[in-house]
Amino acid sequence: METWLSAATNHWPLIVLCAFLIAGAIIDCWKLKVPNWLTFGMMLSGLALGTIDSGWAGFWASLVLLGFGFLLLWPVYAIGGMGAGDVKMQMGFSAWIGALYGLTEGFWIVLYGFCLAAVIGGVLGIGLMIWHGRWHEYRMNTGDILTDLASAGSWQDVAQRAWQRKPRMVLLPYGLPLCLGFIGYLILRIWTHSG
What we know:
Layout: H1 4-10, H2 12-31, H3 36-78, H4 84-101, H5 103-132, H6 135-151, H7 155-165, H8 175-194
Helix pairs in contact: 2-4, 2-8, 3-4, 3-5, 4-5, 5-8, 6-7
């Protein structure tokens, strides 16, 4: 049976990655912004770890998954649905996963972690709507967003309209569901692979 100390020793890169994610979530909840020093630190250290651990193959796996992390959230960011810090936080996570697991296995970890984060974000978003008692207003905003997506001439038009609505909305610091989704999926993965 693996002790907590030996598990921590065997999984130290994951512990460092989780510390990055937790710091990003806490700062995002506090300031509604994930700082560049943290997100770029995650991206660069993920690329460095991949290179040190596996040479060019590790670097490329880390870089490709960094790009994949960007592509997953770029549409939401492009229409004003979340901040750039959240996108960069996901890119940093993806770079580390590429370094630790390689391209193929890492791809699925990033995708499943992202999907879990999206579900958690949806649940937290519904919770915020109920907590603030503004269900009708949020339902109308959702209708406006869908109308914008269907009728706006460009991404910039959709983003501009989203920025106009933003002051009326209670914002969800999306670093929190990203952190919970990524760490939750990593824990689930380690737990299912150790049994």
